[in-house]
Specification:
alpha+beta; 4-stranded antiparallel sheet
């Protein structure tokens, strides 16, 4: 029985490191692309890539869709603290549920994205956004790879829950 427990622990430990590694890859890709944008674009610059997509440099002082962007500065530290607490919770969730593949993928994506945006807030005081999709003159709010990973992770969490309920 002890052997089975050790094998289970080892599998869980390996899975945890896999998910943390994936979160690190998301974080590194996010930060690398933001460094490229900061080095190549001035604030507000835009380069068309396709008829519906531009690369831009935009600074978001708030949260999603610039929520609380004009709040006077306190939101920087509020969202930094919130992101840090969320990251710690996600590491705990990954440790506790490391063997669950879809759940682990989801949490790793959200974790990497959340930490990427926290790093921006600490270093710059805002989040660097650069992906600008538009249609017929209407622009979706600019976003970044961290936001994309968070969105993908949230979709995977919803799918994981739907599948869990279906199995249950």
């Amino acid at each position: 029985m002890a052997k089975k427990s050790k094998t289970s622990f080892t599998h869980t430990s390996h899975s945890l490191w896999l998910w943390l590694g994936l979160a690190l890859l998301v974080l590194l890709a996010d930060q690398f692309t933001k460094i490229l944008i900061i080095g190549s674009f001035a604030l507000g610059d835009s380069t068309p890539v396709t008829s519906f997509f531009n690369l831009v440099r935009w600074h978001n002082n708030g949260a999603a869709f610039s929520f609380l962007a004009q709040a006077g500065g306190w939101q920087r530290w509020f969202f930094t603290g919130l992101g840090t607490v969320a990251a710690l919770l996600m590491v705990w969730l990954l440790k506790k549920h490391a063997g669950q593949k879809l759940f682990g993928l989801a949490i790793a994506c959200v974790l990497g994205g959340a930490v990427g945006n926290v790093i921006d807030r600490v270093l710059y005081g805002y989040v660097v956004d650069f992906l600008d999709f538009h249609y017929a003159g209407i622009h979706f709010p600019a976003f970044n790879l961290a936001d994309s990973a968070i969105t993908l992770g949230a979709a995977c969490l919803i799918l994981d829950e739907l599948l869990r309920v279906r199995r249950g």
